[in-house]
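Progress against Task 2.4 (sequence-to-structure conversion) is shown through the following example record, which the project officer requested during the mid-term review.
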Amino acid sequence: MSPPPRAGQYLTFFLSERSYGVPVSSVREINRMTQITPVPRTPVFISGVMNLRGKIIPVVDLRIKLGLEAKSSTRNTCIVVIESEGRLMGVIVDAVSSVIDLQTSQIEPAPDLGESTRFRYVIGMGKVDQDLVILLDIAATLSPQEMEQAQAIAA
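Structure tokens generated for the chain above:
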């Protein structure tokens, strides 16, 4: 179960021209698109692994994992390195936007999207002016088995 969103700073990024946000506290760094080494026989959403200053970490294509259409990398494509439960994971996003401060009054609970376990990674909705930012728990996009598999390919 994902923690409820809290007031604070969120890194915002784009996927398919929609704005998403993750708590800044879970972001370790942002890198330009770099060499990703594919690993055979991994799920399609795992792009492969990357070398992060001597540490091999799995890289997930967030577009594919969220069921969005695959897209070629552009000069704006980035890899956001997330830390969850002591594990590092890179996620490919279309472009990083900014860091925003959300107050409690600007955060709505995640909408009821039916299958609650299927959408457990949506932790809330941030209201910024007239726009909505979908707040995510990136680690929750992967099932526990998928997380283990992603970490195993980097071992």
